[in-house]
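User: Predict the complex with FE2/S2 (inorganic) cluster.
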Amino acid sequence: MSADPAAFRFVSTNRRVREDRRFVAGQGHFVADVALEGLLHVAILPSQHPAARIVSIDVSAALAMPGVHYVLTGDELAAATDPLMNGLDTPNVRRHPLAVGQTRYAGEWVVAVVAESRALAEDATEKVRVIYEPLPFVMTAAEALKPDSPPVHPAHGSNVLLDRTFVWGEVEKHFAASPRKLSFRVTWGRSSTVPIETFGVAASWDPWRDMLDVWASIQMPKYPDQIARALRIPANNVRVHQDVDVGGSYGVKRGIKQTVLVAHLARRLGRPVRLIEDRLENMRGGDAHGPERIFDVDVAFNDDGIVRSMKIRALDNAGAYAGRAPFQLGKPIGAIVGPYQIESVQYRAQSVTSNKAVQEAVRGFGQAPTNYAIETAIDKVAAATGLARIEVRRRNFIRKDQFPYLIPSGSTYDSGDYHTVVDKVFAHIDFASMEKERDRLRASGLLAGIGIAACLEPSGANSSFEPLLNEKNTTTTWMDSCRIVVDALGFVTVTIHNTSSGQGHETLVSTVVGEVLQIDPDLIRVIRPDSLACLPSNSPVGSRMAIMLGGAAFHAAQKLKTKLTRIGAHQFGVADDKAAYANGSVASNDKQLAWIDLVTIAHRQYHMLPEGMEPGLESTHVMQVPTGGTLPKDGRVQMYPCHSFEFHVVLMAIDPALGKPEIRRYVIGHDCGTVINPHIVKGMTLGGLAHGLGAALLEEFVYDDEGHLMTQSFMDYLLPSAHEVPEVEIVHHCTPSPFTVFGQKGSGESGYLGAPAAISAAVNDCVSPLGISFNKLPIRISASAMPSPTRNKANRKSKPNDHRLPRPSGAAEPAGIDPLAGRAIPVDPPDRGRRQPRILLRRRQADPAGVETAERSARPPEMDGRTENRASGGRRLARYVRLRSAGGGGRGLVAPDQYPSGADRDARTALRAARHRAAAGRRARRRSAARGACRGL
Amino acid sequence: MKVDLRINGINRSAEVEPRKTLLDVLRENFLLNGTHAGCEHGVCGACTVLVDGEPVRSCLMFAVQADGYEITTIEGLAPAPGELSVIQDAFCETHGLQCGYCTPGMILAAHALLQNTLTPTREDIAEAISGNICRCTGYGQIIEAVQFAADRLRVANTPRPAALAEKPIVEAK
Ligand code: FES
Ligand code: FES
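Assistant: Here is the predicted structure with FE2/S2 (inorganic) cluster placed in the model:
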């Protein structure tokens, strides 16, 4: 099939996304909408200690409450199930859905209560008495690396989960031969994708059929297998219903612990059981957190800005358990040089456990942080050589004529034309005038800057990072599948074999099958069989579905077309290649058989079929990842098959008095090969970009010194709203991939992979006249500090990174090799103090003064070695809000954010103030609860 | 406690606990599942419904407090089964959603805005939906959807060019 867009009938056309219809009518089918007879509800009692031995658990008072059916502890669950799967070979890092013997992070699930309603279950959790003996804990990766740090898993021996150094090419030689070198550190703060729907799962067990039915808000490869393993039941006793709509995931909805917990309860109680996490359960102990990573980078280059070699050390804080998190250090190996011709790389990947919540897969699977490090390196090379940032990129970019291009770590990039995309973007924005605009803004007293970033989106997910980081793992396929069935009346039904969380897979497969069979995609039904009727799928991870599901659908449709053509040729008495399929019929010379005739022959007239042909009309394709299939060798492997390219340009202004970054213009050049549905690709790009903006400026899971999560509600963990996300201009380019059926590449992570780097670069360009730079995301700008650079520090010389020892990181530091270096401004120190960025304080935030008061008043109680907890730590935000709002009444219940704009301004202000007070109160209450100070509530 | 609600133009009553939110009652008692729970603490807007035409977070309101108010949920917007309102259709046209979880709240917020004005600026729209968090779309196509819906509603409410045909169109010089 040609990749020329003009040759397509449906692919690349602006057709509507078929899934949208049900959602705009409120007719999605989410897990919370699944109605089951006799459903019981689960609420969770979390630990309020970052690390503590569980001395005893007394559930009797909870069990005695009306409506309560069961109270489950970790010991019982662990006896009945196997530990959850580890990605790495770390058998002593055991993870169970409920803590066993010891808790390892504040918020870890300790007890599950099952009751007639969620509210009753929540009430009963407050009656569970747990006695803890606090243990020493460790929060930062740097601390966790120290040999004397308290081990999160004593049986494992240390906190190190992974420490591998790869050397690809002659790194030392290239460093020795390079005239220029620089070193720096950047830190990616712990943030995540935080879908608006929390994770939820419902399960029922049928003892007469030995069948576990599962409905879940899930995006997890090999989900049914993992459930079966943990529950020690045959995999064909597990039936996952894939027709559940997932309210956003972007990687995180892994849901294994929740599912094992609920499935065990369903089996134990003989009733369907459901757990829908509330926001607190989700943020503290669900699959909520993402990478938290420190990069130490050394770059070897010359006076022309040509980068020859790089050393990257990535130290990742995985949280309390292993899970798949460490693999997020592995995937970026497939694009470790970004879009640049860098001859050699040394990469040290370190993952450590800490007493924080577990890290899960997040959009890009580690690629966005890595891109941030690489792009920062390029900007620093530009600063050091005095060359324009774009010029350094242009000089280092892989050229169009070099593809397919083998990078040092073993992956071959399929295709790309980076120079052209950049040229197109620059022509679109008229870069010279953008620079003038920046200078004009600067002259007007603002801090203004331009950020640029170029990066790759490896797509078509394989799982080569598994065998690369874990030698016991020999996986070399990560297939996906499609089946097409044509019924006896000629109607077409296509199956997909996983859940979707907004990616538009139904639109994807109907478009592809419609394209190949030349029939209207709107006439094609798309269904999702339950997992027992499914073909193999590895779920929509790693920007793979356009390539893998689209590819499987394409090949299945081709097989069907071939069968129809053969049926036609047989009737005409000609060789198969003398008949041709077009628009649903098969013709040869002047003879033609219509669709329905072909269908009838296949379904009813066996005597008219070519010899040996199976009756019926059905075709199936299980697709292997293009370029995949080999095990790693010498630390090198082909990671993903396709590589989309994106190029970001941001114009930013910061009012020095407010310290509030404001994006004046945002342009992104995007090349993901052939686009299958333009609406979907645009949505992914814009959504990813907003998400990247959050990671760069707003979002962080922050823990205090006592090991408690401070940003656990949407009032503290700030998701970008319509006010923060700028209008974005997209410049398209299409470099088809030679490895895919239409030339398509992935786009599910676009925007997110480059936006943090670009926004960080823009902020740093803004503050460059002050001689400072920010080296940690999210960037915290202290408003008061902005105008007056006061604190002087001795010039820090650029020194090679010691790749063995951690060093402290700061929110802002003098730019390493900047001639103006030497001046720093006070900023919010990392991991301490007030967390709220003052930037973008639009509407969802409490009055900062109020918050500070509240925090001060919420002192933890003295610890006497043992504490008794009857209240569940950080109890029930949701219910608390319900009680608070009882004080409202009438008009006051209209959320101030949504108060009609025509309304009386005073009323609006008063309401807002009331909400702010309530919010501050809620925080105080929550924090004191989290510290065990509100016993008996 | 008995509560009498008027939901989507129909009188309905239920026996509910006083502490039960409007959100939970809509979903559990009346099986109106289009209203979603996102945060249950008044920030995300997924639970938005209209109370007397104004967007309200149903997670912050007790059902018993809604007694006597006119409540509109997303299920009340479609003119007939299988038929979409202009705003709903506009969201489909511009793909103003992905996972669809925030969408009912977004559409109700947009609906309330367009009840007040058919000539909203981009800022007006951003303001109107700024209390609704969407994690998927980055808002661009949502804003386009509301603009598109406003355009269509405006056109629907103004005389067609055909109706103006008697008057010759004078070109500006
Ligand atoms: S669920 Fe009501 S505002 Fe989030
Ligand atoms: S469409 Fe998914 S949150 Fe808005």
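The first strand of chain B starts at residue 2 and ends at 7.
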